[in-house]
Design a protein that fits this description.
It contains eight helices and six strands. With 231 residues, the chain is α/β, with parallel strands linked by helices. It is globular. It comes from Sphingomonas glacialis.
């Protein structure tokens, strides 16, 4: 803890002076983050560091397993964060980011690890669909490979949950919100993105278009055309 306190003091003395104008602007005018990123609480996965973000760039929500409960099942911090980001801050891009060697996914695939942790076990029920996909769709994988597959499939499942949130569903219908599914390989320092067209993850490359899970485009199920009232 003393080491962390030392870093706080270093920030005040060495870092803040060089960025004081930025912080003053943010304090005076508020925030306008470019994206909402929902990532795992794992200490090795730091969204701001990975994306080289400046203060004010990212609205971040972190929890065990980068989980987004379906809208109707649980009111809480994740739901409130999503709603505020979309409705109050006008965020147009939402990223759900899983990662390699995820402890939550290890527990999902090895339930005995959850003994004595009833809250974690209850929370991971929101990833049960990913577990079923891996157990039934990847029967040949080793346990380690299964954990990685679960982390990838979990991103897909949480994107589906995200679309049940009214603010997100409405934003998608208006064509104002893009959804992104990412996977960070800790050891390789590589980021993979879900391509909605193929359903597969591909490594993000500087010279290639960014794969997007659900690109922003107006979407309405009804084919009824509503006529505007005459002036």
């Amino acid at each position: 803890m003393n080491d962390l306190i030392g870093r706080v003091l270093s920030f005040e003395k060495a870092v803040f002076p060089d960025q004081s104008a930025l912080y003053a602007k943010l304090a005076q005018h508020g925030q306008s983050p470019k994206a909402l990123m929902i990532s795992c609480a794992d200490s090795r996965v730091v969204p701001e560091h990975i994306m080289q973000a400046e203060p004010g760039d990212l609205f971040v929500c972190r929890n065990a397993g980068n989980i987004v409960p379906p809208s109707s099942s649980q009111m809480g911090g994740v739901s409130s964060t999503v709603e505020y980001a979309v409705s109050a801050l006008g965020v147009r891009d939402i990223i759900i980011c899983g990662h390699s060697d995820c402890g939550a996914m290890k527990a999902l695939m090895n339930p005995e690890m959850l003994n004595g942790m009833p809250n974690v076990a209850a929370w991971l029920r929101h990833s049960h669909a990913a577990e079923c996909v891996v157990r039934q769709g990847y029967p040949e994988l080793t346990n380690e490979e299964g954990v990685r597959a679960a982390a990838l499939e979990n991103v897909v499942v949480q994107l589906q949950h995200l679309r049940t949130h009214p603010s997100v569903a409405a934003g998608i219908a208006r064509g104002e919100i893009s959804l992104h599914g990412w996977f960070f390989d800790i050891g390789a320092g590589a980021m993979y993105a879900l391509d909605g067209a193929t359903g597969r993850f591909a490594q993000i490359q500087a010279d290639e278009p960014l794969p997007v899970a659900h690109a922003a485009q107006r979407h309405r199920a009804s084919d009824v055309e509503y006529l505007e009232a005459a002036e």
